[in-house]
Amino acid sequence: MGDLALCAAMRGRISRNTRSVAQLFPAYSYERPTPVRLLATPSGATQRLKENMAELNGQFRAFPATILCSSTDIRFGGDVLYYHENGAPRILYETCRLSERHVIQGLSADHARIDADIPNDGPRLLLNSAGSFNYGHWLIDDLPRLEAYFVLRGLHPDETITILLPSFNAHIDAVRERSIRFYLPKEAAYRVVFLARDQIYRFAKIYHVTPCSLEPVAKSPEALLAMRVRLLKKTLPYRWAQAARRVAAWPLNPFSRPGTRLFVDRTPARGRNLVNREAVLAMLAHEGFEVIDPDFLSVRQQMVRFAKARVVVGIMGAAMANTVFCSAGTRVIYLSPDVRWTDPFFWDLAAVCGHRYTALYGTWDTQDASEAMRAFSVPTANLRAAFRDI
After folding, report:
1. How many CB atoms lie within 10 A of CB 111?
2. What is the pTM of this model?
3. Pfam families from the xrefs (predicted)?
């Protein structure tokens, strides 16, 4: 069932305490182009991948608008907003998309308890999704919805806006807070407050935003463009902000010199490491690629590197979400694990951004980890074939 039909079916389940405040981004629809190249083993796997992509493209085509909402007498716990009805908890759809139920922290059996009662003493904006612990999902699914801040600033011109984030760990919490600081004007009157995920908070009133994406097959072009424009305007010295508001005119590379070639490495300790990394690096060096590991770059440095790139090769993972800052027409080549673990997230991202997408599927070299984290190798012959498309 398509997302629009799902929303229609769930209209009767919306909390009586929730109301629409403003539309942040309009409803959207788009088609994902066929990848420039898909290479996989064993024989026949590539055709199955194409058939699967065609099915996803036909099934997931149209998606609803993104809405800023407010809810009263609402609770936050287990990573989601919920309310009580007839003595039972009812989770709000916009903070627990059905495709993500398996990754959210479950509500405590004692869901009726209250650890903190928060009065309505100023505007509070919750910014979260099931994937907020992951930099890539934070960047694509969450950060664009910070546009709600500017709506709330108009509604509450003289008040400090509290931005609420569920806490995960020191590293990703710091990254998210720095992202917010970079996104908002220096003079913005706001504060960031982290919520403990093992606590239950009851809010007299809270603002929250419905999804601007549907994991993993939809991303609002307007949402991503709004984020891209706002961040790159503060980062790069060029004149394109006025025209950039038109979705059809996704900004071209602002640099007059030819763009760089990037290889996005991945720290082996994080899993999904490339077993034949040295052979791949040698080939990339011969082709003039610069090797970067975004784990060691600031948010601003990552944006600048990707905005300048015209070809990006990278191991499939959160850091590759930075391709959202690449210009239309950029070649993106993903080194992906075994075809038994596929993820259309980046194919979909490339479609929204107007990138030329290639995926090279390797083979797992180990079975001693979860499918998403297993080490793998990619045939260098396939990488050489992909270079012919550049």
Report:
1. 15
2. 0.88
3. Glyco_transf_61 (PF04577)
